[in-house]
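Re-run with default settings, no changes from the original entry. Doing this only to confirm the output is reproducible before filing.
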Amino acid sequence: MTALSVIVPSLGRSPWQQEMLAALRAELAGQPAELIWVHQGGAPAPVLPGGREHFVRLPHAAGFAVAANFGLVAADSKSTAIAIVNDDLDLALASGA
């Protein structure tokens, strides 16, 4: 069972997307969680190894809400919580570090 599904809608424009992805991986390591990156174009998409990380590619920029909905469709239906975050979220700032 997946306790948490983290969905990241992305236009690929954030200069921090690789750092954000690394920080999310570190936060989720060892947790019953999955990461879903919804790519809408822009900069090269991040490479996700599979397993608990899923990649959804939209054919064009559809907007944050549409991308979030595609992420919800891809999420584990047994997830007990969903988090939808921007691709430029500063996790150190968000956690108060």
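The chain is about 30% helix and 25% strand. The longest helix spans residues 17-28.
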